[in-house]
Amino acid sequence: MFPTSPAIAVALGKPRRTAFRVAAALLTLGIFLIDVLSTLEGAVAVLYVVSVLLVARTGRRGDIMTTALAGIVLTVLAYVDSHGLNHVGAQTFRAVVSLAAIGITAILALQHQNAMQRLGAQARLLDLSHDMIFVRDRFGVITFWNRTAEQVYGWSSEQAVGCVADTLLSTRYPQARESVESTLLSLGSWEGTLEQRTREGEWRVLDSRWVVQRDSRGRITGVLETHTDVTERRRAQDAAMRAQSELAHAMRVATLGELTATLAHEVNQPLMAVVTNGEAGLRWLHRAQPDLQEVDAAITRSVAEARRASEIVKRVRAFLAKSTTVREALAVPALIHESVRLVQHDLNRDAVQLRVEVGSGLPSVHGDAIQLQQVLVNLMINASQAMAGQPHARELHVDAQRGEQGAVVISIRDNGPGIDAAHLETLFKPFFTTKPHGMGMGLAICRSTAEAHGGQLSVHSAPGQGATFRLVLGLAGDAA
């Protein structure tokens, strides 16, 4: 086995290097004296290879070359002194073997030193990385552990090398471990997000990249793993999602005032119908000859209207509820119809003429009904408010048609004053509003909700020609 790498040899310090040089020099001298003075017939000079290997531990090319050259010269001198220049025989063969052994050992030592220097340089580069990097063999045993890994995980290189990576770090994978390994072996690399635990017991979220290392014959020798700590970024993303959820909830609550009148209007209608049908049923029942068929019909209508009132209340409560999002296949006509029911009272109050055109055979879309209703309600209320104060008839068009690649396009168009061209770029940004008392979150939440459903929300407007908001939604099963 060859000696220690140059990086380790440098760490030994000058005194150790001097000691190796002195030991090699004394050994070389001793071998020469034995070769010259003794009567041994063996290839004593071949022992010079030990001096070459010994001095190689200094990590200096010059020391290796000097010792090898000294061994070659002394071998020749000892041969000439013992046998002369004209002798050819077994001693000559042994001398040639010794010279070849010294030369080959020196060449291999130099090659080993060059390889170790390259590995040392690569290791120093890996130590400079801000990522955690370690190398493991095909059985998961760690063979290299960089400085950042020491700092983040808490185990030193001496403690980590020789341990099984998954056991040491309690690694959690996004999928089955066998599936990850299969992808790694088939593609030669793998990327994903996983969780690992530090020595202090803290879990870290990591973007991980694995690359297979192979030898000249293509056999797997190890796996290089690079891990980027994204724990704080993940926490920030989670906080942002929670903040968005809170803002969306606040927006729904803010809409409560506008929905109160709608709720009162819609619930009042079925309740009045219940009263009317109840009174009619009583009249039919109190006749001299009760008409039980009419009584039955009146009671049936009362029950239907009561259920309608209950559904209205449930729908509004769900709209305002802060609950877990449930995605399901939604029929577009029903989605538009329920949204229109929520704003119909406001539109009637503002004398807005509503026209709804839904194309036939539209496919279902995948999403949360309450969130998508919120988008449509916000857009229709905004359109109604934009047309306020106009002397001419106020018209609101809601149109749903099949778009490209089977998507569904819902357009909401008004005939109001339109949107200033200077505001089109910032219209969907949070906290931007043109209303005196607006929050500036409605359209921002509408766009983020559309994008969360795998869709898009855009606007087209020309001054004096109204505005058209275009909501594009994918098919059921397309959105995650």
Automatic annotation (TrEMBL):
Residues 188-242 form the PAC domain. PROSITE patterns: HIS_KIN (PS50109), PAC (PS50113), PAS (PS50112). The keyword Flavoprotein does not apply. Residues 124-184 form the PAS domain. Keywords: ATP-binding, Kinase, Membrane, Nucleotide-binding, Phosphoprotein, Transferase, Transmembrane, Transmembrane helix, Two-component regulatory system. InterPro entries: HATPase_C_sf, HATPase_dom, His_kinase_dom, HisK_dim/P_dom, HisK_dim/P_sf, PAC, PAS, PAS-assoc_C. Gene3D superfamilies: 1.10.287.130, Histidine kinase-like ATPase, C-terminal domain, PAS domain. The chain crosses the membrane at residues 22-55, 62-80, 92-110. It catalyses: ATP + protein L-histidine = ADP + protein N-phospho-L-histidine. Its EC number is 2.7.13.3. Pfam families: HATPase_c, PAS. It comes from the Bacteria. Signal peptide: none annotated. This is histidine kinase.
